[in-house]
Specification:
The chain has 128 residues and is an alpha+beta fold. It has two helices and six strands, in the order ββββαββα. It is globular and about 40 Å long. The structure holds iron/sulfur cluster (SF4). The site of iron/sulfur cluster has 14 residues, from loops.
Length: 128
C-alpha cells in the first residue's frame, strides 16, 4: 500500500447510470447493486478521466492509502475488454465538441476538472 491519487465515488450522488464504466480503460469501475464501485483499486491510475463523464458529479480524486497502480494488470484488463468486444463511449472536445472518431483528443486538467481537448482547439488553449 502506498499513499496516492485514486478515484473516489460519492454513493449518495451516484445513480448507477454506468456512464463511467466504459471510459475507464483499465476496467477499475463496475456497477454493483446499483452503484459505481472501484472493484480493483490496482487498476485505477488516478488520472481522473472518468470524472468528466459523470452527470451527477459523483466522481472525484482523493489521496489515500491504496495498492500501487499495476500497469501490466491494467494493460491485460484493457486487452481482455477489447477482445470481449466492449465498445467505448466516444468522448468529445469540450470546446468544439468534435469526437475522438474525428480527431485525436488530449486530456487536460483545469480548475479541478478533467476534460478532453482536440488538437485543433489545443493551440488556442496554449496561446490564448
Ligand atoms: S457516471 Fe456517476 S452517476 Fe453514473 S454510475 Fe458513474 S459515478 Fe454513478
Amino acid at each position: 500500500m502506498v499513499k496516492r491519487q485514486i478515484v473516489k465515488i460519492d454513493e449518495e450522488l451516484c445513480t448507477g447510470c454506468g456512464e463511467c464504466v466504459l471510459p475507464c480503460a483499465e476496467g477499475a469501475i463496475q456497477i454493483i447493486d446499483g452503484k459505481a464501485r472501484v472493484v480493483r483499486e490496482e487498476l485505477c491510475d488516478g488520472a481522473g478521466f472518468c470524472i468528466g463523464v459523470c452527470p451527477e458529479g459523483a466522481l472525484s480524486i482523493e489521496v489515500r492509502e491504496a495498492p500501487d497502480f499495476d500497469e501490466s494488470a491494467a494493460r491485460e484488463a484493457t486487452r481482455r475488454r477489447n477482445e470481449e468486444g466492449e465498445t467505448f463511449i466516444r468522448q468529445g472536445c469540450y470546446i468544439c465538441s468534435r469526437e475522438e472518431t474525428e480527431t485525436p483528443l488530449l486530456p487536460v486538467r483545469h480548475k479541478g476538472e478533467s476534460k478532453w481537448v482536440c488538437t485543433r482547439c489545443l493551440p488556442h488553449l496554449i496561446h490564448g
